[in-house]
């Protein structure tokens, strides 16, 4: 009988037996939220996009925090349920287990979170010495992917090994870019990185878009200058802009999504629009 099972399927079954986890019936689209510059709204975008996709679109969403600062769990502290069983570091280095084991449900229906741990920064150095160091997260997401519709990975503010792991695990790249020339320079670097990944590691990532964040309508001169430098990426710039809105920071402090904190705020409306756009773009590619 075993002779009738193709080798590929036999390998998959063996892997599942090894992790002891059951496969689900979904196949998540994986989005890496990535920008080299700090403080441009990566975590705010990852958290509120994840909540928007779960709440407004009925998606099963997993938010993975690949940044040792641990901001995703902090930003959702009022919503998290359960206690984390192991560390993301352990999973990345252990290889035998899957991030699914770390997923904490939240009170936001459909949304689960894999928190980071403080060791993650130090882990980066250990990962760098491993064979296949770029694929550790991808390997640790195989089962998790089958249980969710969307996985969103919040990246640290650099293009180190943790970010490379996120990009290699991802189908899509979303780049938050605040209205500064430094931020636009960072976009160049990320696009160069994904080209290198495509050439050297044979992994293609679709650009979901460049998201203009912290947009201050009163700063017309600065906005026009930055928009002009973004011109070369025009086909990737999303139509939505996230305005400067203190409600976003207040929601983060309260440990919940902006949609739950104040659904009428300009931040909530903008992130709802972004979730709609993301659903459309992903569906268009399918
Ligand atoms: N559109 C916005 N309006 C007002 N405040 C914002 C906005 N977006 C983010 N913030 C605030 O700016 C700070 C930085 O945002 P966030 O943590 O999302 O950035 P980040 O890119 O993830 O930073 P890091 O690079 O450190 O990971 C937070 O206090 C957040 O609440
Ligand atoms: Mg962050």
Overview in brief:
The chain has 286 residues and is α/β, with parallel strands linked by helices. It contains 12 helices and 8 strands.
**Parts with pLDDT < 50 across at least 5 consecutive residues:** none
Q: How many strands, which pairing sense, and closed or not: the largest β-sheet?
A: 8 strands, mixed
The helix-and-strand class reads alpha/beta
Sheet with the most strands: spatial strand order: 3-4-2-5-1-6-7-8
Oligomeric grouping of the chains: single chain
**CATH level-3 fold name:** Rossmann fold
CATH superfamily, please? Answer: P-loop containing nucleotide triphosphate hydrolases
**What's the helix-strand series?**
HEHEHHEEHHEHEHEHEHHH
Q: Tell me the number of strands.
A: 8
Number of helices: 12
CATH class: Alpha Beta
Going by CATH, the architecture would be: 3-Layer(aba) Sandwich
Bound molecules: adenosine-5'-triphosphate, magnesium ion
Strand content: 15-25%
Q: Please indicate the count of domains.
A: 1
* Percent in helix: 40-55%
